[in-house]
Structure formats: structure tokens, C-alpha cells
Amino acid sequence: MSKKIIKIGGLDIEIIKRSRQKNLYIRVTPPDGNIIISVPARTPEKIIKNFVLRKIPDIIKAQERMRNQFRQSKREYISGESCYYLGVPYMLQVIYHDSKLCKVERVPNKIIMTVPINTSCEKRRNLLTEWYRSELKKILPSIIKRCENKMNLHINDCKIRNMKTRWGSCNITKKSILINLQLVKKPLECLEYVMTHEFIHLIERNHTHKFRSLLDKYYPEWRSAKQILNEMPLDYWEK
Hints:
- The protein has helices at about 45-70, 120-150, 190-200, 210-220, 220-230, and strands spanning about 1-10, 10-20, 25-30, 35-40, 80-85, 90-95, 105, 110-115, 155-160, 170, 175-180.
- It is an alpha/beta fold.
- The strands form three sheets. It has a four-stranded mixed beta sheet, covered by helices on one side.
- It starts with a strand and ends in an 8-residue tail after the last helix.
């Protein structure tokens, strides 16, 4: 693998060449909208430049959206911080004690984290992250079942990953869906919109007019759900 940065169309582009890669992929990464393109190792620079130039309007739109959307400040996982769950802000309360007990529970208006004295910030973050993961695992089966029933489709697997740039993805060959852990912090309709979106890729691979028509058919409220995703605060990410 090799990396270098070149300027294309006035934009700084990080080029990553991989020997086993077959196609060209472009990503705009948070929080500053940096551009990374990964390509097969022997791809000529002219092909890379033409590929980027065709994508510039979409790149600029993604950068503007990323830079303008409100992002939470850096978390220290201490009492008084806000934590979102299904679109609702909760106050975090951290309780320290002498035993080895570590747990997180949600009560009205609060998420309570119980940890041993001197538990590090990293361990508190990991504990909350795993609680979010367990909560999302409880919610997903009913959303998946609803999508399968209304679309007469079936997936083999659904995994959760904490992703920076995608709400979800679909492996069409394996009939497997990947969902962003951060969706557990958004309203439930956002999760159903993303899940429906990924299911539709099993019917229509690309974001064509037919794809949008299928979204209208199977989840008519998708536009408002997408707007909520674009307006709600994002998590803090290190540069």
C-alpha cells in the first residue's frame, strides 16, 4: 500500500493505492471534510483525476454538510454531560464505588453509569459504547422483521459498527447489512429509514430514480427522517 497527496480541481486529495483493490472509492471524512480516494495499485493518475473531477460537486456538497452540522464537544464521560438515546437527550450520572461492578442503566431523564473508583475516561467511554451496542441489538430485530415483511425480502446477517462516514451499508452478495452504532442515538424513524435504504439495495444496487421510487413505496417518510439525520448533532471525532 502507498499513500500520497495531490491537488485535483483545487482540492487536496489523499491517494491510497492497494494491490488487492479492484475499484476506485472516494470518501469525505469528518470532521473537516478531508478527501481520501483508494484505488488499485496500477491505476494511472489520469484515470484518478478524471474520476475525482466527475465527483467534485458531490464532494463539495458533502464537505459543506459535514462542516455545517453541529457536532458535540469532546466527551469526558462525567456527571452532567448529555447522552442521546433514540433522539432524546439524557443527563449522564457517574457513580463511583469500591467494588468491581460496572454497569449502565437508563432511568427517566438520566443514564446512570456505575464504575469503580479511578476508572479511566477510556474505560467509561467503552462501557457506555457497549451499553449503546447492547441496546441497539435489542431494537434491530423488530426493524429487520418489519422490513422483511413489507418488502418480501430476507437478509442473512446484520452487524453493528461505529462508523465515521456511513449510516449503513449492504453486501448484496452475502445479503448482509452493516448498521452504524450511532443510529441508536437518533430517533427510531431514522434507524428504520437507514435499514429500509439498505434493504432496497438488494433490489436496486445504485441510487437511481427507481431506488428513490422504492423508498417512496416502502418508507414514504424517508425524506423527513433523512432531514433529522442531517440536523441532529453528530458525535465528537478527533481530527
